[in-house]
Amino acid sequence: MKNYWQKIQFIAVFGMALLIIIGYYPMIWMTPSAAIPITFSPPPPASDRGAPSGRGGAASRAFSPPPPPPDRGAAGDRGGAASRGCGVSNQSVIALVPVYKETLKQGQTEAVSVTKVWGLTTEEYPTFWFFVPYPKSTINSIEFVLKDESSKLSQTLYRTTVTIPEVPGIISIRLSATTPPLQVDKMYHWFFKMKIICNPQQPPEREYVEGWVQRVNLNPKLVDSPKQATPQQRVNLYAKNGIWYDALTTLAELRLAKPEDPTLAVEWMNLLKSVDLENLAKQPLIKCCQANAKQQK
Fold first, then answer.
1. What DSSP designation does 184 have?
2. In what order do the strands lie in the sheet containing 127-132?
3. CA–CA gap between residue 258 and residue 260 (Å, rounded)
4. Are 128 and 95 in contact (CB under 8 A)?
5. SS3 246
6. Which among 122, 125, 126, 118 has a CA at the least distance from the CA of 222?
């Protein structure tokens, strides 16, 4: 009899415990878990480097520089030295183009420092950009020259006197279609020359910058991308693939069309900053200045 009542008590206690567990179990799922943080991982970038951004302009405009020419090729001077020139704040003319500083070995122990001024384009007739810090009254003349120095005898392909800008700022010079188009994989040497009147009592002082441009074909996988992309997407495409002149010109033309656009202003700053020219980001873009082009034989 005693064992019988013990069994009854055990069953009753077990049943009550089971009812409590069943009633409490749903509450476990209803209680929020605040102790486990939830993080979001963005999708990986496109497999094809330089694929256009789907947002049409939200991407950074950082420039991915390609390897510079080997040895001493493309040595030049993009300017900007504060010790020369007589412009505002003693500034000098600056070419908007990347520079590469390299130390090359010469012999067993001697090392030579070389500054290369060089950029790529896909255009037959690219556009070149320069910052001119001088007031119009102090500029005597401006000239742009393009040379083919692939052979021992240097050949001047293009020479033009440039219209003097009304105010200091960034100007552009487009290679004229009257000249032979740039050939793919060939290096061309350009010069931007100025005569500046620093002292009216003295002859004009000469100042110039020089660099190189090389035309290349776009990656075959991306050749149709510029046609399908918006202008802002094309900027990103060119910048990520190291096509400096095309990226700069496309973005500059967008800024000229929409000078008050804050997004374009940020993208312009980012692009120039990627080649250490962020100090020019707030300089005005000026619509001028080419004239009197001459094809050289």
1. B
2. 94-95, 127-132, 169-174
3. 6
4. yes
5. helix
6. 122
Burial 158-196 (b: 16+ CB within 10 A, else e): bbbbbebbeebbbbbbebeeebeebeeeebbbbbbbbbb
- Tell the burial category of 64 from Cβ atoms under 10 Å away from its Cβ (0-12, 13-18, 19+): middle
Show pLDDT as tens, one digit a residue, over the chain (297 residues): 444 444 445 445 444 544 444 343 333 223 332 222 222 222 233 333 333 333 344 445 689 999 988 876 788 999 976 545 565 556 889 999 999 988 777 666 677 788 999 999 999 999 999 999 999 999 999 999 999 998 888 899 999 999 999 999 999 999 999 999 999 999 999 999 999 998 889 999 999 999 999 999 988 777 667 777 888 889 999 999 999 999 999 999 999 999 999 999 999 999 999 999 999 999 999 988 765 555 454
- Six-digit token pair at 70? 């080997």
257's tokens: 């069309």
CB within 8 Å of 203: residues ≥ 6 apart: none
Helix H segments across 31-151?
none
At 12, give phi and psi (nearest 5°): -65, -45
**Gap between the Cα atoms of 209 and 95, Å rounded:** 7
- Find the angle CA(74)-CA(78)-CA(81) to the nearest 5 degrees: 135
Sketch the domain layout of the chain as residue ranges: 88-295
Cross-strand partners of 127: 174
8 A C-beta contact, residue 259 and residue 283: no
Q: Are 144 and 159 in contact (CB under 8 A)?
A: yes
